[in-house]
Amino acid sequence: MLAEQERARVGGRVQGFIDDEQAHLRVANGQIDPYFSTLRKALEKALEDAPVFSGTSLLGNSKTSWAAQAEQFGATGNPGSGPAPRAPTPAEQLQALQRQHGDKWMEYLRGRVQAVGEMQKLAGGGGNKLVVTLELRQGADGSLREAKLVSRSGNPQYDTYVMNAVPSALAKLPPPPDQARGVRPDGIHTLWSVEGRVIYLRKLKDLKTDDAAYLAAAFAAGLLAGRFEETTGELEVIDFRNPRFECQPRLLRVY
Vertex 141, ends 136 and 146: CA angle to 5°? Predict the structure, then answer.
């Protein structure tokens, strides 16, 4: 009797591993209906206008960003988030010129380039992040049956915010089409991650006359920077006065 129970337990665990891997491959290989992309966009929309949660302030972001770089440097000799680039960075090129010419002006420029690079990384959400893993169960018509947190972020306010956004997001969705890939007759079972981070970027078109003094001061300090958003064609500039919290849901599994 005990042996049979043990075999059943082990068999159940093995089947669970198989089901989980298949659920991952469905997403990785795109073997799911476009309905799930619509669902992701609905979740993203419902998570807009989030407050800036405690522990994700500018100071916390700065400490986290520098700590992560220090850890990376200790492990690989490279302070970046990936493998060392093949081509020298602008800061490295300036450093080479400084060694060659011994020019204090080059040292000044190199410091500014490094400062701007770090500011851009921080402004784009390169600091402290909050991540939850969310399991959703829906009916075959898309209606919500159950939502639960599989893993928490460590910030109860953020966890609650994500959970509260789910019902309204799904309520606005049309049902999935008949025989949609990833939708079973008994319903829909998915796993998601929701990553939240503070962003200090503002669209240039949203700046007003009152912002001219800030832009002038940043330009004078040599720290006016931003990014070009390729998907929208809009230019964003760093604005540490107006932080916003951005939540990005990502589909992990479709069972």
Answer: 25
